[in-house]
Amino acid sequence: MTHRRERKKSIDHTTSFEGVLDVAQTGVGYVMVKGPEKDILVRPQHFNHALHGDTVKVTIIRQGNGSGKKEGEITEVIKRKRTEFIGRIEQNADFAFFIPDKSRGVPDMYISPDKLGEAKNGDRVMVRLTDWNNGSRSPNAEVVQVLDITDEDDIAMRQILSEAGFPVQFDERPMEEAASLPDIISGSEIEKRKDFREILTFTIDPSDAKDFDDAISFRKLDANLFEVGVHIADVSHYVRPGSALNENAYERATSVYLPDRVLPMLPEHISNVLCSLRPHEDKLTFSAIFEMSNTGDIKKVSFGKTVICSDHRFTYEDVQKIIEGAEGPYKEELLLLNNIAQRLRRERFAKGAINFSSQEVRFTLDEKGKPIGIEIKESKESHQLIEELMLLANRAVAEKVAKVKVKDKPLPFPYRIHDTPDEEKLLPFVEFAKRFGHRFNTKTPETIAESFNKMLAAVKGRPEQHVLEQLGIRTMAKAAYSPENIGHYGLGFEDYCHFTSPIRRYPDIMVHRILQQVLQGTPRADGEMGEKCVHCSERERAALDAERAGNKYKQVEYMQQFIGDEFDGVISGVASFGFWVETELQKCEGLVSIQSLLDYDDFRLVDTEYCLTGKRSGKSFRMGDKVRIKVIAADLGKRQLDYEWVNESGDTDDKNRRTRDTARHKSSGKRQKRKK
Known about the structure:
The chain is an alpha+beta fold. It has five domains: 2-79, CATH 2.40.50.140; 84-150, CATH 2.40.50.690; 175-356 and 381-404 and 501-520 and 540-547, no CATH class; 420-476, no CATH class; 563-675, CATH 2.40.50.140. It contains 16 helices and 33 strands. A hairpin with a 5-residue loop joins strand 30 and strand 31. Helix 2 runs antiparallel to helix 15 (529-559). The radius of gyration is 28 Å and the shape is globular. The N and C termini lie far apart (63 Å). The model is unreliable at 1-11, 650-664 and 670-676 (pLDDT under 50).
C-alpha cells in the first residue's frame, strides 16, 4: 500500500485524458481517448471503481516503450454507462452478495438486508448499483426485481438493455410526476392554441403501435389549393426543464425497440395516454401547417401550438389497400395526399437524395415471445406518404431556425446531420461496382449521389442488388446530432432536424422548445448544445446496438430448431477468419469459419475484392454470392449462429434433395402456425 501511495505522488496529472473504458475478456482495460493519443492500457488494479463502458479520466503512469502502449490509472469516473445488472443472489445470515451473470470486470456487489426486497438465496435478480465507498472492493447495490428463471427470453432482453446502459425501470420521481399530470385539457390552455378539432385529422401507424405521435390534417382551401397539417404530440408541454421527467428522458434520450417489447423514453402514462394522438380525444400538438397546390408546390408555411381531435386511426395496411383501389374512409383525401407525397419524393431524389431501398425483418412471436416465423416488410406508398410529410416538416423547422441569430451568431440547435461519404471507403466500392458495369462520377458530392441513384435503379431486381446496396450503405457516414449545420447528404437537404417524434426521441423535445422560443421572439443560446448532441447521438447508437442484439438473439433462437438442416443463402460479409451468410428465406445471418474450409483449400482475404480466395483451387467466396449452408450451432448465450459451407455437386440427385429440404421447411412453418 505504501508503494502505491508513493507511486501515485509521482504521477504527472497534466497528462490526464478523458475517454471510455473498454474491458477485454482477459480483464485488462483500454481507455479509448479523444484526439491523436493511442488507447491507454489500464490494468484491473488501476480501474479505481470504473466499469466497462464508463466515461473516465485516466492519467499516464508509464510511457510505452517502442510500439508498446502507454499505461495509465483511472483517477475519476465521470459517467457510468450502466447501473443495472443481472445475476443471482448468494445470501448468508446477515448479508447477501450479488454475483453478476456476465462479469467483464463487474465485481460482486454487497446487498444489505433492507435492500433485498423479496429476493432469496439463489434467485435470479436485477440490481441497481447505488454507491461505492472508497477503499471497498465491492459496491453497494439494491434489488430492483426478482426475475422469473423460467422466462429466459425476458432475462435475455433485460440483459441486452442493461448492457447498453438503459435502465429497465423508471425511478419513482419521474413516475410520480407523470402520474400527477392532468388527463383533462383546460379551457384556458385550448384558448392559447389554434383549434384544429373541426378539421379532418387522422393517424397512420403500424398495427401494433400504441404511441401515436404524429397526425395529418387535410382540407381544401379552393379548387387547386390545400392545407396539410403535420401535427406532433406536444410532449414539451408536459415534460418541463428541471423536472425529474426531463432529466430521466434526457439520460435515456431515446426509446429502444426490441423484437418483443418497447422500452419507452417516457413513462407510459405520457407516451401511450397523455401524448398519444388517439382517435376521438382532444390532444395538444405542435404543428407545421403547409398551404400547397395539388401538385405539391408549397405556397406558405406556418408553425404553432395547436389542439386536435383525430377522426380516424389508420394502419399502414388500411391505407395501402385504399391506394391500391379498395374502398375506405376518406379515400379521396388519402389519394390526394399520396399524390402529393409521391411528387415530393420524386423531387427529393431529383435534387440529390439517395434512394436506398429498405425492408424490415420482423419476427412472428408466440404468446411466450418465442419466434415461430419471420415476416419481411417493405416500404410501400402508405409508408412513404407519412415519411415524406414528416421529412417535409423536419426540413421546414430546420430552415426556420437556421435563419435565426443570437448576438450575430447562429442559434445553437440540434441539427440532424449526415456527412459526405468517406473517400477511403468510397473508392474501393467504386472499383467493385465497376465489375458489375456501374461507373461512378466522384468529382463532387452531387455527382456521387447521382451515380449511386443510377446504380440503385439499374440493379433493382438483379442478383447483385443486395450486395451493392449493403456495401453502398457501408460507405456512408453515420447520421448524428450536431449544432454545426453541415446538412444531410443522404436526404439531400441543406437544413434538417428531428421534430416529429418527441415521444421517443429527446432531440425532438429540444427542437420543440427552441422553435417555440423563436416563434415568441425570445431565442436563447444554449452553451451546452454540443454536449447534448454528443450525448443523444451516443444513446441513439447504443439503442441501435441493443436492437441489433435483440434481433440476433431471436435469429439464433429461431434457428435452433434447424440444427443440421441446409439452406440457401447469400454471402453478406467477409473477413480473414471466414464469411457471413444470410439465409434467403429466414434472413438469419451466421458465420462460416475459415477453419471449416481447410479440407477444401487454404483461403485468404482479398480486401479489394470483398472475397476469400483459395490458393490452389482459385475458388472464391465473394459478397453477394449465393451459397448453400448447413446450420451446425446456435449459441443463445453468445447470440451466435455457426454455419458450414455445403460443397454441392450440382447433379440431379442434389437438386432433388434441395427441393425436398425446401418443401420440408415450408411444411414445418405451416405446422408451427397451426400450433399457434
